[in-house]
Amino acid sequence: MKRWAWLALVLATTGCGYHTAGHSVTLPDNVKTIAVPNFVNDTRTYKIEQTLTAAVVREMITRTHYHIVDQADANADATLHGEVLSSNASPLTYDSQTGRAASVLVVVSMKVSLTDKAGKVLYQNPDYLFREQYQVSRELTSFFEEDSPALKRLSQDFARTLVANILEGF
């Protein structure tokens, strides 16, 4: 009987190995300031790098305790470099009556790296790929160009994912 009680106690107190996401920070303790200069734009999409950089800066300010500088700074403990590799918008669905595009899919590919002052890579991902879909307005009187809001939504998704990956070490 004592063995069963002991076994039940042991099983009840041991964990399954899972942990709650968002509680581990993988950056070194000496990192207090992170510089986030404008990402490099290798595409023909106008100001895409500015939209992505601004979203990352906003997300880092709201979700982390680090001091964030939105430009290159030699005094920063770490620097986040980003590069927009490609941006593509293509029709996803078509209107059966007019043959015009009814929705568009935007796909953006990026790479990022976070390095410390000595050049040591703290985080790196060369293969970020994000997609966002938007509807094309059918009425010319109420036509609203939806690509900018779609790019803004995509930037926010990217920023949330990037900051979570940096903080949790994925």
Walkthrough of the structure:
The chain is of the alpha/beta class and 170 residues long. The protein has one domain (2-168): Double Stranded RNA Binding Domain (2-Layer Sandwich), CATH 3.30.160.150. Helix content is 29%, strand content 33%. It has three helices and six strands, in the order H-E-E-H-E-E-E-E-H. Strands 1, 2, 3, 4, 5 and 6 form a six-stranded mixed beta sheet that branches. A hairpin with a 4-residue loop joins strand 5 (101-116) and strand 6. It starts with a helix and ends with a helix. The model is unreliable at 18-23 (pLDDT under 50).
Quick description:
The chain has 170 residues and is an alpha/beta fold. The protein has three helices and six strands, in the order H-E-E-H-E-E-E-E-H. It has one domain (2-168): Double Stranded RNA Binding Domain (2-Layer Sandwich), CATH 3.30.160.150.
What's the helix and strand layout?
Elements: H1 2-13, E1 33-35, E2 40-41, H2 48-63, E3 67-69, E4 78-94, E5 101-116, E6 121-135, H3 147-168
Parallel strand pairs: 1-3, 1-4, 2-4
Antiparallel strand pairs: 4-5, 5-6
Helix pairs in contact: 2-3
